Amino acid sequence: MSKSVTGLSTSFKASKINSNKGRYGSFAEIGAGQEVARHFFQAGQASSTIAKSMSAYDMVFSDEIYGKEKSGRYVCEARLNKMLGTEFNLLNDRLVERRESSTFFAFANTVATNRGHGWVGMQFQVCPNSPAHTVILHVKMLDNTRLQQAEVLGVLGANLIYGAFELSDKPELFIESLTDNISVGRLEIDLIRFTGPDFEKIDDRLMCLELVKLGLTRSVVFDPTGNTSTLPEEFFGKSVFVMRGEFRPITNVNIEILNLALEQFKKDHQLTEVVPLLEITMAHLKKDGEKISKKDFLDRVDTLSHLGFRVMISDLDYYYRVKRSLRKVTPEPIGIVIGGNHLEYFFEEDNYLHMKGGIFEASAKLFDPKVTVYVFPYKTTESCTSLKSYITDPVSQNLIDYLTARSNLKELSDCDEIESSVLSSQVRDLLKSGDAGWKALVPEKVKELIESEGLFKD
Questions:
Q1: Which of 126, 248, 390, 458 has the fewest CB atoms lying closer than 10 Å?
Q2: Residue 398 CB contacts under 8 Å (≥ 6 apart), including other chains
Q3: pLDDT tens-digit profile of 225-260?
């Protein structure tokens, strides 16, 4: 069922833009036809709004117009930026003297409907002769057919253009309005960027977390510098190793286990390069209705990127959903490391009552031939839970035995000396009490950042 937070139809939005004769721009669309421009043509008075509309499908033509990409890819952020810059500059160069009172804009998209993702953006002035402002989105189109995907893209583009002109001073409402008149489950937006003088106070990272909070995407990704990125940009065609955790903050034990598991994964799959991914889920917070502190999550991103890690923040509750997201961008081996104390979460039938196939369906979705889950022994003063010592019902045990024989499930070796029971919560408790013992539990760079920024004391 379609929704609209503004209560406005797509045709009304296009008409509103067209009726303002001061706004004048170009449309450049690659990959799904003139789906966005079509809404403005059909709304009437398009001659007052549209200077040019084009599709640059042929690679040679596209390269002649916008130049070649070093990566050789056409569906990427760099391509979109070239399209926006070229079209916006042409408007200024050719028309600024003839249309001194016009507010110029350039809309562009570059989309791969066969892979269901693309980049959409707009460069615009907020008033005549003002500096350029830019809004960029990375989108995933979830419909099965190209025609349906193109339809969604057209509505999204109209929402973006309307929002840029009418709602850019209300970024949260702007973001929510991007899916006006688009049915739930047809589109995800997993990245948004704002640039320009009027957007200086907008933190793109907070806005991307807002996407997760609003349910517009299941996950957002941060690169090793802590800036927003996407799964394709960071992991396309690469082997990935995932560690899920609270990381509030990351501990020395986390690092030890990750490094040990990563080396075993490389050896088992004969790999030389693997990209580590630290994943933090907010699924339990959303499920329990708890307040989500976006600053708290960004503090975690800051500490992890300080160590050079890529980070995913998601509302993905099950590992098979994390794996499915990664599998869309890479066919290469994927590794996951968990503690023995999480085996119950993996292999208790009651956790999968929402699935028709229960635990077997969940296992089938997670454990393809190129996925390996490593289990490290979780030790407390009273017990040690490992893959070998874990006791469950006969059915789940048979499944564990099968996955172990198939090399999808492995005990992490050579980790007996790691004190795996050290938790982030212990670090926070020591911090709150003023006990300096927390400093020995975290990496040096993390210690310095916590001290300088006063993190994790709440």
A1: 458
A2: none
A3: 999 999 989 999 999 999 999 999 999 999 999 999
